[in-house]
Amino acid sequence: MDEAPAIQALLDKRAELRQAISELSHELYQAKRNLAQLEQTLRLFAPNVSQAKRQVATFVRSKYFRPGEITRRCHEAFRAAGDDPVTVEMIVWRAMRDKGLDLADGPMRDDFARRFTWALNQLYGRGAVRKEGTGAEAKWKLA
Predict the structure, then answer these.
(1) Could you give the CA distance from residue 120 to residue 16 in angstroms, rounded to a whole number?
(2) pTM of the entire structure?
(3) Which string of b and e fits 103-127 if b means at least 16 CB within 10 Å?
(4) Would you state the pLDDT for residue 137?
(5) Bridge partners of 130?
(6) Are 115 and 62 in contact (CB under 8 A)?
(7) Which of 3, 27, 109, 127 places its Cα 20 to 30 Å from the Cα of 46?
């Protein structure tokens, strides 16, 4: 009967986990209910919710780049780097320098970084590039 304390401890832990699952299930139920109410309210203001989502998430084209230029610049950066990995910051600095823009302009640099990151993620989704790491320090290479 040396196992009795171990068995009791396991039974206690099982009861504790069941209680936690019950509480989390209740929280999930409440969150789903709140979401449904929010969606109903949204429909009052925007009957066509999918159209409202499209209007909110419109993409604003940059005045600094022609269509396709961002992706082209990504490919040029890969060619220039050879086998070395490329960072978004490297592409951004080169683009800003090529266009004669102020490299110290933080908001513009952030906007460019967001656009180049989006383009690289699109290439990643197609399997054209590999990503090493996460966030701003991520390094990209051709697949």
Answers:
(1) 45
(2) 0.58
(3) eeeeebbeebbebbbebbeebeeee
(4) 83
(5) 141
(6) yes
(7) 27
